[in-house]
Amino acid sequence: MESQEPKVTSSTLMPFKYSNRVLLTTILEGGDDEMLLLGKTVVVGGWVKSSKEVKKEPVSPQPAAADAFPASSGHKDVSCVEILQTRIPFFRTIIWVLGGSASSPAVREKLESLIPKPPPPSTLFLQINDGSCVSSLQVVIDTAIASVSAGQILPTGTSILAQGVLGKPSAHGKQTIELKAEIILHVGTVEQDKYPLSRKKLPLDILRDYSHIRPRTTTVASVTRIRSELDFATHTFFRNHGFLHVQMPIITTTDSEGFSEKFQVTTLLGKTSKKEEPVGVSDADGISLETAKAAIEEKSRLVEQLKRSDSNREALATALQDLRKTNELAQQIEAREKSKPVTALKPDIVNFNEDFFGRQSYLTVSGRLHLESYACALGHVYSFGSRFRADKTMSNKYAAEMWTVEVEMAFTKLEDAMKCAEDYFKFLCRWILDNCSEDMKFVSKRIDKTVVHRLEYLISSSYEKISYREAVEILRKVTDKAFETQLQWGVPLTAEHLSYLADDHYRRPVIIYDYPKAVKPFYVRLNNDGKTVAAFEMVLPKVSLNFSSEVKNTFKQIFSGTPKVFCFRLVIKMDKWYADWNSDYRQSK
Questions:
Q1: β-strands 159-167, 41-55: how paired?
Q2: The whole model's pTM is what?
Q3: CA 4 to each of CA 40, 161, 183, 187, 280: distance values in angstroms, whole numbers, following the listed order
Q4: CA 210 to CA 216: how far, in whole Å?
Q5: In what side-by-side order are the strands of the sheet with 251-252?
Q6: Helix-strand-coil percent breakdown of the chain, rounded to 5?
């Protein structure tokens, strides 16, 4: 359907600055002002989440001379279908004259079949959403007023742009306001059979195959809006407290931790070399035949479970389609492995002097080394961006790419850093409750019923601060639970240890400080006891570890003769600029 130019009358609603469209959140989440919007003409846009059609009894037209050519009181845009509908009595008269009263019924029937018959009138009820809020707006379309094809606009996923008047709902229900459409400005159609969201209650893992449509699900949309608010809250908190935001490089030649698995960045792969060794296709592609076969077994079990339950035919059809695709992938991998192997370069024979950067480069694991140099020049700084780790862990708390907030403060004690972490987290919790109330209602209803109560508790509660020694003593006295890792001094606290302290023992956030020097990086400042270092971790109930921090040594303190230094000598050599800056600047400071 071709787009038309909308005409919006003046109203108290302010449209989006870069469009004449009014966001649904200004209509549906306006609070008590919602009733003041009744009678206002607006333009709204979105995609159809659900719809229904109510047929109306057709009204036969009354032919009249005045109706055949109505006088126009003003300019009004009409469609070709509307013009033809007003000319139907005129066409019937011509056919009657040409056919004559004595003509055969077959002739008259053939002539009348040439007249375009108007579609039967109906009322369309659409629930549309534009992504600005959880709620959807009901759009009522009378096909006798706004000419539109029901087959085009009713399918789930159809995009529409409509102009109409806001009014009270015609029927009692959850809706408190609706739009009575006068003009349909644009319709973006979809193929209903191929549109995945036409099926109800699709699992999120199935939607991984439809990444371009996944944001239209209420769950992903709510999480995205909450995440956006968290980003804004992070910048707001640190800006309000005098921090400067510094962007850290994503591609780097340094490793701030010295022992992490890194993603290598290179332009040499695929280039020919005199020394080449055959590598299987499955290794090069990263998907082995064994992995594909294991996925087939898992998906086959899911199909059998769905067949036995016979409760969700759509989910069964989706699972069968997924299983078929996995079988095809396994066949392709098996066929390619039997064919001639491809060649790839081994890292030990790669000359990185010919690479783009002239040396080995990686996706950054952490920006702390770069950020620390800014802290010693600018005071309090922070960075917020992507960090990458090539660690194949099965935990759902870690991913290959994670967005991390890193903070560096000059002339600050460990107690100040703990206070900053506590205030920052409480600020985030309060911001979400104040600015994402509707999204949090959805999360409470569909995902976690206690999430709002937990956030309120985290804001109001005081955080328990204990040393590593106190934490070990508490865990050793536990008799009603057996830990997988035997706890003794110098052993890192595992997730189950931290979870027990926050969830079972204190039942509130816990900050653990003064860790043994053996479990923390080499650059953390050694305490006066010679056994512990100035570092802390903040543990939250239900989510385990959340914040960690440490006070760093000066360069001369790092090279004080401790054995740990020699393990990281290669890293220090690569980061000579860091060593030079650390010794010179901090000595002068």
A1: antiparallel
A2: 0.72
A3: 20, 10, 9, 11, 57
A4: 11
A5: 251-252, 361-363, 264-265
A6: 40, 20, 40
